[in-house]
Specification:
six-stranded antiparallel β-sheet; five-stranded antiparallel β-sheet
Length: 375
């Protein structure tokens, strides 16, 4: 299974409400007409149908297609004209005005439906373009270096107001493997712009800089530069939570956590977070920290699995508002192969959230390559 592709059950529509079914449209047209007709006959005021029926096409225009709205408009106009057919001569003018009003109002409803459909198609195109841009700039899993095989999954939210800035990368350098996962503050296309600025900086610094702190310093500078350009353009400045790992041939791994979700070890009795210290400040906020960012070390032995993710996982909520319990669920995944683990976690995440995806989801599963790399 290619874990980088969209898992089954995800919504390509990015949370957009589905269009009305014809059965629903027909049901409401007939049901409302019958109910109002019965009430009108009971009260002896059949012509009172008109003020109520005329709003039906406007309601259908909010969710239905242009054709559905046109059918509803035709139905309503015919019903109103029929209800006014035997109107007394002294009220013929009022009846005719009512029919004209219905025709004009229904025509506006059809025009509104057409405008809404065009707008939704344009928004859907932009959403898909943003998600496609993200997928093109992020390399597909699995990713491999001399030390690691990295499986994973990236699932963007294809909605313009909620699309996020999750990025990841794995780079083989003269100093070992450098692993990067990050999440930009905020949503929308400006967040994507900031995300790709810091991603480009990592790809360059991971190869050029001999120490992990120097890599993170380069990322900090990239965020500050981006914020400077954003301020000139009148956009909001942003910070970036990030986790950067340095993995060499030994069993010890270097990590600098810049306010990100900590990595999780999946290895029998070692299950759980591997970082014990407090996270450093996010990228872009170093000037507000009284202390410099520091490296923390932890053991990553052969045969163990390391799970990295963004807060699209840990902050997913169930219908009652409870966050996804990642650490508690991890014990059940010890026997799952690294290649299948991203999809397994994502399916469990969607069950927890009842299928509602409110944020981008990025998962990385790190496994040491078999061989003699570990000393």
């Amino acid at each position: 299974m290619d874990a980088s592709r969209e898992p089954s059950g995800s919504s390509a529509a990015g949370g957009t409400a589905p269009p009305l079914r014809w059965s629903v449209v027909v049901f409401w047209l007939v049901a409302v007409t019958v109910v109002l007709a019965v009430i009108g006959i009971f009260l002896g005021r059949e012509t009172r149908l008109a003020p109520f029926l005329v709003v039906l096409p406007a309601l259908i225009a909010g969710r239905g297609s242009m054709r559905q709205t046109a059918v509803a408009s035709t139905w309503v106009t015919v019903m109103i004209a029929g209800a006014l057919f035997d109107t007394a001569e002294d009220t013929v003018g009022a009846a005719a005005a009512t029919v004209v009003f219905a025709v004009v109002f229904n025509g506006l409803s059809v025009a509104r439906a057409a405008q809404r459909v065009r707008s939704e198609r344009e928004i859907a195109r932009l959403r898909s373009a943003a998600a496609a841009l993200q997928r093109q700039l992020l390399r597909p899993f699995p990713l491999m270096t001399d030390q690691l095989i990295v499986h994973g999954l990236y699932q963007p939210v294809e909605e313009d107001s909620r699309v996020g800035g999750d990025v990841y990368e794995v780079v083989s350098s003269p100093y070992g493997t450098r692993v990067f996962i990050a999440d930009v503050q905020g949503k929308g296309l400006p967040a994507i712009s900031a995300a790709f600025s810091v991603l480009s900086a990592f790809r360059e610094a991971a190869v050029a800089e001999p120490t992990l702190t120097a890599v993170v310093d380069a990322l900090e500078d990239a965020v500050l530069r981006h914020n400077s350009f954003a301020a000139q353009a009148g956009e909001s400045e942003r910070f970036v939570t990030a986790l950067v790992l340095g993995i060499g041939p030994g069993t010890e791994v270097q990590a600098i956590n810049c306010g990100h979700v900590p990595p999780l070890m999946l290895h029998g009795d070692r299950d759980g977070p591997v970082l014990k210290g407090e996270p450093c400040v996010p990228l872009g906020l170093d000037a507000f920290s009284p202390e410099p960012r520091t490296v923390e070390w932890f053991a990553f032995p052969q045969g163990s699995t390391l799970l990295l993710c963004t807060d699209g996982v840990t902050e997913a909520r169930d219908p009652s508002g409870k966050f996804y319990p990642l650490e508690q669920r991890a014990a059940a995944w010890d026997g799952v192969s690294p290649g299948d683990l991203p999809a397994t976690v994502y399916r469990d995440l969607r069950r927890h959230a009842a299928g509602s995806q409110g944020d981008d989801t990025a998962l990385m599963v790190l496994r040491r390559r078999p061989g003699g790399e570990v000393e």
